[in-house]
Amino acid sequence: MILASTLRLGQGGMEMHKSLWSLWAIGVAASVIAAGWRWQIERQYRTVALVVDGNEIRTLQVLTGKPLGSVLKDLRDFGATAVSVSAELLSDWVSKGKVKVEGSAIVSERVEDLERIRRSIQRQFGTPLPELEKRETGWALPVPSLDYLSAPLFIGLDREIANAAHKVGLAVVARLPNPSGLTEKWVAILGGRNKERQSVRRCL
Question: Is the full-model pTM beyond 0.85?
Fold first, then answer.
């Protein structure tokens, strides 16, 4: 009786052993098939992109004294395939002299630039702004606070580099910054605006 029980256990162990080997074989076969599919896909995409930073292109433009288009053509001839274009801040435009600050307004000769600033302020802070004003120095966009200059107000990508890159056949890669956390100052500003909105809703 003991011998018969031992034989039955042995047969069960052999059956379990065979099932484990079967599962292992199925797993190996699936891995081989998946690896073959991946190899076929990656085989079709062996191209390597050489991306040049847009800020470095600006530096090269200053050092060489060449126009932007000529610098991009030289980089393309040396093997570059794309240009990374960074997001511009309102503070960048002020430091470059693209726009100026006069009193409580942002001034520029280009209406398009001021409209981009208006859309950025409304999109990021939800602040309605008045219409543009015509001045002797150009067009002016009145703003309720100059704190927008110290805030990370994103205007958009550098269109000059992007357009010039497209003209010479280079791809454009957007380089977007990570959003910074709210400072104590902006928490107080946003908190005050929320209180104003709540009081208006109560009156309505």
Answer: no
Burial of 38 (0-12, 13-18, 19+ CB in 10 A): exposed
Q: Please report the DSSP string for 29-56 in residue order.
A: HHHHHHHHHHHHHHHH------EEEHHH
Total H helices, total E strands in the chain:
7, 8
List pLDDT tens digits, range 69-116. Answer: 999 999 899 888 889 888 888 888 888 888 888 888 888 888 888 898
How far apart (Å, rounded) are the C-alpha atoms in residues 136 and 139? 8
Residues facing 173 on adjacent strands: 84
Q: Report the sign of the C-alpha dihedral through residues 92, 94, 95, 96, in that order.
A: positive
b/e code 71-81 from CB counts within 10 Å (16+ = b): bbbebbeeebb
Alpha helices by DSSP H, listed for 45-110, are 54-64, 68-77, 90-96
DSSP three-state, residue 27: helix
Specify the DSSP class assigned to residue 109.
Answer: S
Q: Which residue has the tokens 């981009």?
A: 116
107, 101 Cβ separation under 8 angstroms: yes
